[in-house]
Structures are given as C-alpha cells and as structure tokens.
Amino acid sequence: MTLREYAVKSWHRPSTRHRYLGAAAAAFGLVASLLTAGPAIASPDPGNGRESRPVTEAQKTEVQDAIDSGDIPGVDQVVHSDNVTHLANIPKQALKGTNSDLAFQGKYAFAGNYDGFVIFDVSDPKRPKTVSQVLCPGAQNDVAVSGDLLILSTDSSRSDNSCNSTTQPASEKSSWEGIKVFDISDKRNPRYVAAVETACGSHTHTLVPDRKDVYVYVSSYAPSAAFPDCQPPHDGISIVKVPRANPEKSAVLDFPVLFPDGGNPGDDSKPDMVPTTGCHDITAFPKLKLAAGACMGDGILLDIADPAAPKVIDRVEDLENFSFWHSATFNQRGDKVVFTDELGGGGAATCNAEVGPDRGADGIYDITGKGKHRKLVFRSYFKIPRHQADTENCVAHNGSLIPVKGRDIMVQAWYQGGVSIWDFTDSSRPKEIGYFERGPLSTDRLVGGGSWSAYYYNGHIYSNDMAKGFDVLKIDDRRTDGAERVRLRELNVQTQPDYR
Q1: In sequence order, what are the residues at sequence separation of 6 or more whose Cβ sits closer than 8 angstroms to the Cβ of residue 373?
Q2: Percent of the chain predicted with pLDDT > 70
Q3: Which of 51, 101, 136, 476 has its CB surrounded by the most CB atoms within 10 Å?
Q4: 362-368, strands of its sheet edge to edge
Q5: pTM for the complete prediction?
C-alpha cells in the first residue's frame, strides 16, 4: 500500500489546513549573550544527536507525490487542527545542538539542548523572550527545576565535569557522566555549583522535592564490561540527594536494585525488543507516594513513601508490541498510567503503514487494587491517526496532562509527527482531539527532527522542536478550556503535580 493510499484509507488528514509563519526571533526583543559556566579552558564540541540517513528512490518519489497531492504537508509547512493556534516560534540561536526537554517556573520556561540550556520569559506567550543561554555540552541535557536549583542530565562521556569538557570514550576511567546543579536565582546569569557522577551517566532524571532536600532519581542504562563507570549488571537507579541550602554537598545516596532477576532479558526472535539494563525515565507522583518507571523492557509501579528507598509494587511487560519502554504519565487521579514505546529510538520512521497503529505507540494501563496489591492492567494503545512520510522520524515521546476536571486529556510530542492532543478518559477508546505539525525536513533523506517535548503549562502548550526551536501553541476547545483555571508556580512533568 502506498503512502497516499494509506493516508486516504486509514489516517485521513482533514482537507482544511491552516498555515502559520512564525515570526523571527528578533521580533521577541532581547536575545541574551551566550553565557559560559566557568573559565574557558577548552573549546567545547557542540552536541548534535540529529541523524540523517538515505532512503530508497521509491520512497523519495512516494514522499514527493504525497506532498504534491496534498496528503501530507510540504517541507517545513505548518499545519494544525482548527482548535489549535501557533502563537510563536523562536529558532535556535547560540546553541545549535538538538533541543531536548522542558521545565517551567513562574514566568520562565527552561529548555534543554545538547549544548546546554536556554531560559525563556513566557510572561507573554505570544512574544516569548530569550533571557539567557548557557553553553554546557553534554547530551541529552534534560532539565528540571526546584526553587533556586536547576538540574541537568549528562549522558555522553565527557573529559571532565566542567562546561568546557570535550567528548572522551567511556572506556577511559577518567571520563565523566552524571548530573550538574545550577543556581538559577539570577535567571540572566545561572551559576554552576555542583556535579555528581552517576553510574552509566544520567539519561534522564526525576525530582522528588522535600523541604530541605531534593531527591533526584537518575535513570541510565546500557552498561558494558568495557566501561569502568558503567558495569553490568545495571539493574537499578541512582538516587542523588541535593541539599537546598548547600547544593555543593550533593552526592549519591543509594543505588536501589529494581530488578533483582535482571528484568526483561529480551528475545532473539524479536530484535526490536530491548532487554532491561536500567531505566529510561521515571515519573513521580509525590502526593500519592507513587512513581511509574519506563525501564527499557519493563514498565513498573513504585511505592515512594520513603523517597530515598523506592519499592516496586508491580511490573509489566508487553512482549507483543512494545520495543522500548520510554516514559510514563499518570492521570490526575493516579489510577491510570500512559507508557510510551520509543520504537526505533526516536530516529526511525515508524508512523507508517508497515509499522501500524499498535507499535511505537502509547500503552494505556489502569491501576487496580490498593496499597501493595495494586496492579497495572493493560487497556489499549494510542497512536496518532495521521500518516507520516518515510523521511520523518516519528514515534511516541514526551507529553503531559492538560488538567481538565473529570477528564483525562494529554498533549504529547511525536517528533516529526508533531504535537498531538488526545483524550483517554475511556481507557479502552482513546482519541485525538487536536494536533500541530510541520511537514518533513527533507524529501530525500530521513533527517532527525520534530517535537521532543510538548507540555501544557498555565494555559498554553510549549514544544521544544529538535531542529526548529521553541514553539508556543494555544488550544481553544470546550473539552480543554477548563484547564486554563489551573495555575502552577512550577512544573517538572516527571514530577507530577496534584492538579486537584
């Protein structure tokens, strides 16, 4: 089945599209000069993370035909549903690496980038302004904030823990990976105050804040006997304690083992299924003393009544359709979890006819039972109902709740599949209710790009596009309008607030 036939038959794209041309960054006022955190003793090598791979001549022709016939948007063309408006875009500025995760505090948005992080003033979402840009290479540079602290994840082997480090093989004992701590009391001049090395680095991290301390759950994976600081078995997470009053004393508190049996061993007959050698991402729900872990080959439910000693309550595997358990999101009541499957590692075209609707998708699980007897029960899959080209990396990625009373609605990034807004109030019948996306970056190569994270914060949707920069969206829909009354002082999506 061709792309055109599949798009028309299965994932019909509405014929009416709305084109929006984002204003240039200069229109948003101040663009702060690039900051370097520490003395310049070396020339940092910028990160990238975006891949480019050739496709067949037949695929090139198919993509161009689909664009010419209007079945998919043209290169870089912006399209969206009637209930979504594209308010603003700030292209990349000094930091040219891949954009990654987002966090929020007051009127500020904090955007990770493989080269460091950017702080935006979003007090006027139609005209966001760049406040500061911090050069500190170390993919992925996922970011989270708590009070005057900003935590940055480094999961690429570096020559040292400075912001002037260069790449260095993980096989060298002196190489460094872990978390970095910044003081952001002055948003125009963030100050690097501490670093903590963690086993296998820090791919992502999750904050469990306390009054005096911030507990940081560090997720990392892929150990090797050749890596001195990332030895197998790697069947748990690092817990770092960051004292608010003295973050310089941050240190690893423990490494709890979550998989005493080693976790999912994988299956040679299913090469897409990734065995468990750690966790990719954890979402904590401190109010309910729960956390959900997406751990490569396993999904887990954790009791975090004692944040320094999480305990596994339940564990599930999907041996049929899940490849890589990537992230997790609770609903508002904490009786459901949405797990994502990052089939292809975020660099493959999986939103197509060949892959289908159940792989590279979300898995919706109800939480049944009480206390230590709670169970994760699978209900259904959700995947965007819009077919993407074979030159577009597309798969389920980072998203957050839109806090509407009495409903379970989520906004989610799908790389070049764009931003999807979908309703899973009925766990067995999820449906998309809005979307935003750009056309492919290329018609003749698979080039990595698209929305890495798409989160709802205080009335607007913010998306960090790997290639195109920082986007601000607005949804106007009776099903989501009630969320505008919910106002937060801080949002780290992996530390789920009690919206109620």
Answers
A1: none
A2: 90
A3: 101
A4: 325-330, 336-341, 362-368, 375-382
A5: 0.92
